[in-house]
Automatic annotation (TrEMBL):
Pfam family, any one: WD40
Chief localization: cytoplasm
Subcellular location field: Cytoplasm
GO CC term, one of those recorded: methylosome
Start and stop residues of the WD repeats: 132-173, 174-216
PANTHER family in the cross-refs: METHYLOSOME PROTEIN 50 (PTHR46853)
Protein name (database record): Methylosome protein WDR77
Length: 347
């Protein structure tokens, strides 16, 4: 479970100002969140191909932080618990959620576990297939491997693990990052490749076909600035985008000769990035500055929304739609946006 010190470390808050539980609660209240909502700080989301919405949340209160996973057939009804198709409370906070196949849900836990849940046949119940405590610290990120019953996790223990979900076991452990791993993301086209980024300032490309030297470093513009999140371009196999703790967004072709495109999009840490899936993808980002930004291929901002009242934590596009996306945040809001170029707050 999270401690207050671990929370401060992840979110770069001065621990000395939050040494006691009372001052921690004062910090939460200063972000305009009432105590009745403290159980559900929404931190991540993902649409399935049929438009079903998956949400992950944490309580961020009490001695041991708990979490929950929700599934909505009608995303517009989120986050009302009464309208969710299925949901479950977890014994520890949730840091990331991912769809696995059609009915599986992989959950990264702050207990150090990877949890795998599965929708029952009538899709009204989430059943636990396994909970495995293989990491020695908070699991910060999970990404399914394309075309396989496998996934990759990253953790604050600085390790990356490759899982065989069908066998409920870890098949490979990598210990290359020297500080906590912020994000891992698997290639959508090549099951052997994934990218990781960590608080050591490195973005690494991994190729599981190379057991002797699986990782290679991707040059970044600001090596002293911790990259926080990364995502693959849906159509260009060697192009990734990543954000950092200062609000910069970078798009880079790691096999090409052209320099990376870098732009300061936010005033604070970038928490999540997402490409749309249409033929000319747009790139969306959300940040601790509580805003959503949408950019074109040249990183020119075409849309900005500032409705979130607390950290904006997750963003996801509706599959096959070039102008509709959803964001979530610690303000317990699930906001659905229609992107209109050069417009603010069209939701």
């Amino acid at each position: 479970m999270f401690t207050v010190r671990q929370f401060c470390y992840i979110h770069m808050i001065n621990y000395d100002q939050l040494q006691c539980a009372d001052s921690f609660q004062e910090h939460l209240c200063s972000h305009n969140v009432e105590r009745k909502d403290l159980f559900e700080y929404i931190c991540c989301l993902l649409f399935s191909t049929d438009g079903t919405l998956l949400l992950g949340a944490s309580s961020l209160s009490g001695r041991n932080w708990q979490g929950s996973v929700w599934i909505y057939s009608e995303p517009e009804q989120a986050p009302s618990e009464g309208f969710c198709k299925a949901g479950v409370q977890t014994e520890a906070g949730v840091t990331d959620v991912q769809w696995v196949a059609e009915k599986g849900v992989a959950v990264a836990s702050d207990s150090g576990a990877l949890e795998l849940w599965e929708l029952a046949e009538d899709e009204r119940l989430l059943m636990n297939r396994f909970t495995k405590y293989e990491h020695d610290h908070i699991v910060t990120t999970v990404s399914p491997i394309t075309g396989e019953s496998s996934a990759v996790t990253g953790s604050m223990d600085c390790r990356i693990k490759v899982w065989d979900l069908s066998q409920e076991t870890v098949v490979t452990t990598y210990n290359v990052h020297t500080q906590p791993v912020n994000c891992v993301t698997c290639s959508p086209t090549d099951e052997s490749l994934f990218v990781s980024c960590g608080q050591d300032g490195r973005v690494l490309m991994w190729d599981r076909r190379k057991p002797d030297k699986p990782a290679s470093r991707i040059d970044v513009e600001f090596p002293s600035c911790s990259p926080t999140t990364a995502v693959w371009h849906p159509h260009q196999r060697s192009t990734i985008a990543f954000g950092d703790k200062l609000g910069n967004v970078t798009v880079k072709d790691f096999l090409g000769s052209e320099p990376a495109r870098v732009k300061k999009i936010h005033s604070r840490r970038v928490n999540s990035l997402a490409f749309s899936t249409n033929s000319v993808p747009l790139l969306a980002s959300v940040s601790d500055d509580c805003s959503l930004a949408v950019m074109n291929s040249d990183l020119q901002e075409i849309f900005r929304d500032r409705q979130h009242q607390d950290f904006a934590k997750g963003v996801c596009w509706l599959h096959g739609d070039s102008n509709r996306l959803t964001t979530v945040g610690w303000d317990h809001l699930v906001l659905h946006h229609t992107v209109t170029p050069n417009t603010e707050s069209s939701s």
